[in-house]
Amino acid sequence: MHKILFYGFLLFSCMLFVPAAFAQKNYTISGIVKDAATGETLIGATVKLQELQQNGAVTNAYGFFSLTEPAGDFTLVISYVGYQTVSQPIKLNKNTQVNILLIGGSSLKEVAITGDARKNENIENPQMGVTRLDLSQINNVPVIFGEKDVLKTIQLLPGVKSTGDGNTGFYVRGGGSDQNLILLDEAVVYNASHLFGFFSTFNSDAIKDVSLYKGGMPAQYGGRLSSVLDIKMLDGNDKDYTVQGGIGLIASRIKVEGPIVKDKGSFMISARRTYADLFLKLSPDSTTRGASLYFYDLNAKVNYHLDDKNTIYLSGYFGKDVLGLKNNFETNWGNQTATLRLNHIFNNKLFLNTSLIYSDYNFVVQSFTVNNDFKVTSKIRDFNLKEDFQYFITDKNTLSFGINATHHTISPGDVSTSANSAINAKTIQSRYGFETSAYVSDEWHVSNKLNLLYGVRLTSFSLLGPGTITTYSPDDAIVSSTQYQSGQVVKNYLNPEPRISASYTIDQQNSIKASYNRNTQNIHLLSNSTASSPTDLYVMSSNNIKPGISDQASVGFFKNSKDNQYEFSTEVYYKWLRNQIDYKNGAQLIANQDVESQLIYGTGRAYGWEVFLKKKYGKFNGWIGYTLSKTENRFDAVNNGNYFAATQDRIHDVSLVGIYKLGNRWTLSGTFVYGTGNAVTYPHGKYSVGGLTTFYYPDRNADRLPPYNRLDLGATLEGKQHKRFHSSWTFGLYNAYNRKNPYTITFRDNPDDPTRTQAVKTSLFGRIPSVTYNFNF
């Protein structure tokens, strides 16, 4: 830890000496920007002085801004998409603090699908590969069962690929599904799916902001190789009490929020539950009546303004899935997170966010079969302390720096049984890790044309005792086995992660950008399934498993047109992946004390071209996304050491999203997706031994599933306006033309001619209608 702090301090000291730091004596305007109706802080609002040509300031993740300019009489202008712009005179002859309330709704009556505060933010911002989703996107995009879903929406963006039907897992620029850092109020969510991926864990009613980074991640993020999905929950209305909810065919939800002390503190509670199990109880079959099939989740948050400089927040998420058949088996899994956060404003230039974070993911699999009963439990648990500073040096320089320390516990699986069970009880020892990091980055507006975001993150990971640690040779032989005491360091890794992004503005409508970033990952997912599963196994870097390392370079062109009504971007990227993990053929991953002996290690590469065209305003808006890409892995023990297509390799990926405002009450929407089939391994021959057919499988992932395509339709009917009550109906049709996309393809002997082989395709969904009644008062 002392090395992290030393390097962090050294980097911080060096970066303070940027040219902009020697500016003349100026005065600073700082404050918080909020929604006038709810008191919610607004992320990404623009604050500038009208008479000056500088870029101005943008509120941070907590609504805070700081703007330093020379003395004079100015007009302060605060703007945010979907809100009325506020202009007020200000005499800048001393440091000034102002808190701004913006009124929403009347300045933009048409549907907007962007949350960017500045119309040309996509042109000037040096950050590459970042998308901020506005909740209107999520609310209007049709998805399965009619549930608003963050993860289903981001899968419609270029560079982001779905892992399959009914699955919330996703791949970003060739990375695996475990290489995405998913945060909910800064807490890591390890399994973001309900009901094996048909729903995500994120209830959109409780969400305030969604940001996806798929390239050039800022230095404050770390721990994953491919992307960051940063989701922030609503703080709660500190002006008035409100109730919002919806009743659907298989799920219902409700949200309650209001002030604890008006204008000083508020709360928000949001709950959701499916009730397919209630319908099962109506079945005439006794076995079906005893089945369990449901999930629930609960989001809660409270905040309180202690004084002008300190605000405290406490938020939590609790979710669980239950799937079972009475007296046969039951599987349940769930996430629990908690975040205690303190925002402290030292002065008008220095802002601190301190977070204490808890994250827990666990699953339980039980069998109740007589003489074969068992119970398997597994969990991964984190305790995390973060200190994030922002120092607004001048209007041209914003310095971010901080430290992070996380203690990981992974319990891969305990098998318990009754005294009469034929299955042996087994305990797999837990693993413990301690991960620390320090980072520093600077956003520097070098000139009116050139903007830079550069920095470095330094990460240290230690595998800790207690436990017996075994070292394996490449042929699975045990090289050594050593007992370690509690807290004793088994293995330590130290990795620097440089990051840099730059934008060069050709004119107000055109820019080019480039970025390079390195990321490391010390928590790894082991799965032999193409779909997300609650029983997927996590392992951490060890004496056998090295940290994954990713280097990504990208360059892009960005253009706005027709008064910024249209946004166009195209990016190309190349990603190098080291220390990638796969499993050996026939590997046993579950309840295996020596699971690390079942692994192989190699490299990977991913490269591609992304095109994105978005219409932001008007009665009709939406976007078109296209990705042309290639993702390959190489392992010495697979395919003779040659590169082969990764499971997530999908050459072509197309998404079309359209939203049309039909009058004052109807909004129509539709999405179309097309993608090359996933890489799979088909048998190329078979032979019979003792009357049993054995299939011969050649090179891994040498074949393809059929192409995937689907059309979804949606419509929203707004109810008549009332003073305190508002309602709407949401209608959806998933897979409108009833495409039978393959979920799996298996092979067997043809029953009529055993000498021939028969392929059996399994599809999850046909055409699925949905309807939801929404209310707000």
Range of helix content: under 10%
Main sheet makeup:
22 strands, antiparallel, barrel
The secondary-structure class comes to: mainly beta
Terminal CA distance: 51 Å
User: Mean pLDDT across all residues, rounded?
Assistant: 85
Model description:
Helix content is 5%, strand content 57%. The protein is mostly beta strands and 777 residues long. It is globular. The two termini are 51 Å apart. The relative contact order is 0.12. Mean pLDDT is 85; it is low at 4-23 and 106-117.
Detail the topology: elements first, then pairings.
Blueprint: H1 2-15, E1 27-35, E2 46-49, E3 57-58, E4 64-69, E5 72-79, E6 86-92, E7 96-97, E8 100-102, H2 121-124, E9 130-133, H3 135-140, H4 150-154, E10 160-162, E11 170-172, E12 180-184, E13 187-188, E14 193-194, E15 199-200, E16 207-213, E17 227-233, E18 242-248, E19 251-261, E20 265-274, H5 276-280, H6 286-289, E21 292-307, E22 310-325, E23 329-345, E24 350-367, E25 374-394, E26 397-416, E27 426-427, E28 431-445, E29 450-464, E30 467-472, E31 478-484, E32 489-507, E33 510-521, E34 523-526, E35 537-540, E36 548-561, E37 566-583, E38 599-615, E39 620-635, E40 644-645, E41 652-662, E42 666-675, E43 679-680, E44 685-689, E45 692-696, E46 703-704, E47 708-718, E48 726-734, E49 744-750, E50 753-762, E51 768-776
Parallel strand pairs: 1-7, 1-8, 12-17
Antiparallel strand pairs: 1-4, 2-3, 2-5, 5-6, 9-16, 10-11, 12-13, 14-15, 16-17, 18-19, 18-51, 19-20, 20-21, 21-22, 22-23, 23-24, 24-25, 25-26, 26-27, 26-28, 28-29, 29-32, 30-31, 32-33, 33-36, 34-35, 36-37, 37-38, 38-39, 39-40, 39-41, 41-42, 42-47, 43-46, 44-45, 47-48, 48-51, 49-50
